Backbone:
């Protein structure tokens, strides 16, 4: 009989090509070990609530009331909910067409898109048009929608940083495009060199690829760097010269752990550059409720803002969004609350600030604890996590460890991470899942485990690592930096 469409051999080859290490071999093994009763510390996904981060009270109160509007009619509602949460819930319900159970416009609720536009204006000091903002089910869906519009076939290339968050490599594979890598420089704190970027484009063109877009992740995942304004200007000028649309993945814009390089948006820098750049460079910026001190990953809320995209293309993007009918409506409320937070004088303001500051300040301390912890280990070097949620230490593997990995049929960093998992229960993602230079090895952990658990986790990492190195070191040299 002829193969059926969903038989493995007849599946779309692009689906089979997709790789997504964040939930790959290490995660699967960790889940197995957990089922066997071993205590696992899941640091493979930037999923703060799964590691004990508590939700902010006010937004949950508002969404709870929106989900259960009959509570608003209860005479005792004021005993359970503060007046500002009640007022906000009524406000958001009035923006919907039938509450949270009704589809919204496929671009999202107009009133929430206005709140997003006002947020962007306040943040950047330049106008933002709600008609060019689409709400999405997490930033992931927005990235996928836009990549889908850009990639016409394997001749179309997208510049992606290496290391990168594998949403990009996976989606480019899925849509049958070509990933054009550009390397971030570890010894320059994961900075980006425009000459290298240019070289990547030249090489791709010599292979017949039309490079159409460039991705930046700022702050970086997995690398944790914050791009300077000067660097962003160079990138935008490069996009102008090479006629590339820029994807600014800015989901970690609230996660900043140093003061020298605050977050600056691509949109702001583009507007500051003036003509011709500000009117010519096409930019799509992404944001999410999954990160920052919100960490509301499970709610699946995001948006993208389009700059310099012609109206007819925006209409096509709208049409495609319409095929999915509506982004998740409760998540749109979270987005509204995130971009239009409480103000001084509001009843719940003090509590909101206490909770949100507490989370960010603790993350800042955890970023330091992790970096210092890794740097105290044998054959491990680690740049400081300036932003985002990850630490990405380089593990300098001795040749004997690399040989042992080969014998076991594993990529060397997968081998190391599996050993780490078995010995300590710490579930990480090998650097190979994000891309790295040939012969250089890393792992990624989140900085999200509870602060009080962090010293214990770093001690157990150090103990494992130093014993591993002791076992395999023979002083002939290491994988290189
Ligand atoms: N962009 C980047 C750079 C991300 O790291 C993530 C999630 C997303 C987009 C998508 O987020 P949402 O769809 O939830 O808005 N980061 C994953 C990661 O590396 N660990 O956890 C999730």
Residues:
């Amino acid at each position: 009989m002829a193969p059926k469409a969903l038989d493995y051999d007849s599946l779309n080859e692009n689906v089979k090509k997709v790789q997504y290490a964040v939930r790959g071999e290490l995660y699967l093994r960790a889940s197995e070990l957990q089922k066997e009763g071993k205590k696992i510390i899941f640091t493979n996904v930037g999923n703060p609530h799964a590691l004990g981060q508590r939700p902010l009270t006010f937004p949950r109160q508002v969404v709870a009331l929106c989900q259960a509007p009959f509570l608003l009619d209860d005479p005792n509602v004021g005993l359970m909910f503060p007046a500002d949460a009640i007022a906000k819930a009524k406000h958001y319900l009035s923006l919907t067409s039938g509450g949270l159970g009704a589809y919204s416009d496929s671009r999202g609720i107009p009133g929430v898109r206005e709140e997003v536009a006002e947020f962007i204006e306040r943040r950047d000091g330049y106008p933002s048009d709600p008609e060019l903002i689409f709400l999405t089910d997490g930033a992931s869906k927005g990235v996928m929608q836009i990549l889908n519009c850009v990639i016409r076939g394997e001749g179309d290339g997208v510049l992606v940083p290496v290391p990168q968050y594998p949403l990009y490599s996976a989606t480019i594979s899925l849509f049958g495009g070509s990933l054009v890598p550009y390397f971030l420089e570890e010894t320059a704190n994961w900075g980006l060199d425009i000459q290298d970027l240019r070289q990547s484009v030249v090489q791709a063109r010599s292979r017949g690829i039309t490079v159409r877009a460039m991705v930046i992740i700022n702050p970086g995942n997995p690398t944790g760097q914050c791009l300077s304004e000067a660097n962003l200007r160079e990138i935008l000028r490069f996009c102008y010269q090479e006629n590339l649309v820029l994807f600014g993945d800015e989901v970690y814009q609230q996660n900043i752990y140093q003061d020298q390089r605050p977050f600056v948006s691509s949109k702001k820098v583009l507007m500051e550059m003036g003509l011709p750049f500000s009117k010519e460079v096409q930019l799509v910026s992404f944001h999410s409720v999954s990160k920052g001190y919100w960490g509301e990953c499970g709610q699946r809320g995001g948006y993208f803002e389009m700059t310099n995209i012609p109206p007819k293309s925006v209409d096509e993007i709208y049409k495609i969004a319409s095929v999915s009918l509506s982004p998740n409506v409760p998540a749109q409320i979270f987005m509204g609350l995130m971009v239009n937070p409480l103000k001084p004088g509001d009843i719940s303001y003090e509590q909101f600030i206490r909770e949100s500051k507490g989370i960010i300040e603790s993350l800042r301390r955890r970023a330091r604890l992790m970096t210092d912890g890794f740097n105290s280990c044998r054959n491990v070097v680690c740049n400081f996590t300036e932003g985002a949620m990850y630490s990405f230490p380089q593990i300098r593997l001795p040749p004997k460890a690399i040989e042992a990995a080969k014998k076991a049929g594993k990529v060397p960093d997968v081998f190391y991470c599996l050993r780490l998992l078995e010995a300590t229960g710490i579930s990480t993602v090998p650097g190979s899942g994000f891309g790295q230079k040939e012969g250089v090895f890393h792992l990624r952990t989140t900085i999200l485990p509870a602060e009080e658990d962090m010293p214990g986790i770093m001690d157990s990492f150090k103990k494992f690592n130093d014993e591993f190195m002791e076992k395999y070191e023979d002083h002939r040299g290491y994988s290189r930096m």
About this structure: The mean pLDDT is 95. Residues 22, 45-47, 138-140, 165, 167, 217, 221, 249, 251, 288, 290, 297, 302 surround DCS (CB under 6 Å). The longest strand covers residues 178-185. The radius of gyration is 23 Å.
